[in-house]
Amino acid sequence: MQFNGTQKLIGTGAQAEVFLYEGYAYKVYKPTYPAEWIAFEKSQQKAVNDAGLCSVRYYDTDDEHIIKMDFVDGEMLEKRALTGDITCFNTLADAFRFVHSTDATGIQMPLLKDTAGMGLSDADRDEVLEIITRLSDKEKNCVCHLDMHFLNIMLPRDKADYVIIDWMNARLAPAVFDYARTYVIFDEFSKEGLEAYKAIVLPNLWATGIKESDFMDAVRACTIIRKREKNETT
Ligand SMILES: Nc1ncnc2c1ncn2[C@@H]1O[C@H](COP(=O)(O)OP(=O)(O)O)[C@@H](O)[C@H]1O
Ligand SMILES: [Mg+2]
Description:
Shape: globular
Number of helices: 8
Largest sheet: 5 strands, antiparallel
Bound molecules: adenosine-5'-diphosphate, magnesium ion
Oligomer: single chain
Number of strands: 10
């Protein structure tokens, strides 16, 4: 497919650029990005559409490196965060609760324990899988977004609601891993954000009865996985 010059860049990620073009958003991946991963992202989106987790639909184009998507006319939650408006953390807390309470019966999505070891050294894989297995024996699986942060939550202009995007990383796992993953992301990008996250969002996790030591083990597992991702993209 070819844009006619009227496309507008609206988002940039590590592997793709997103353009607004003729009323739709187009995610254009780098040619080096594996086409199977894009096909996987499309299947993930279908799963979250069917589960009622996200209304944004993905469509095929004649280029396997370009996904056409419903356009969300609004802004990222990040914009509100940058104004110092602390309510963005309440929205984040709500987004977690919404995702984790969704009925996951029959959803076509991989288990975290089946994919988490990919690309890790033997020692890292053993450590990560031991933690996931142990916590999965205690806690029930639910849908986890596993990349929940202010750039993946959008606020549509015309509604008082939010839309969670970018479901590539989503897996079935105990909710503690979703909280842990976002903890690792804040720890990396914003110490101030991490403090607010601990104060406003994590109490919802403690309310589920999780022990702090189990949470810190999940943080450890997510840190190892994150380290691998960063090596992949650099
Ligand atoms: N459907 C959409 N409508 C409007 N903007 C979008 C849409 N999808 C993505 N974006 C914008 O593009 C950015 C990157 O998209 P995202 O799917 O999160 O890609 P990445 O995997 O690179 O993070 C988002 O943060 C958002 O600003
Ligand atoms: Mg994103």
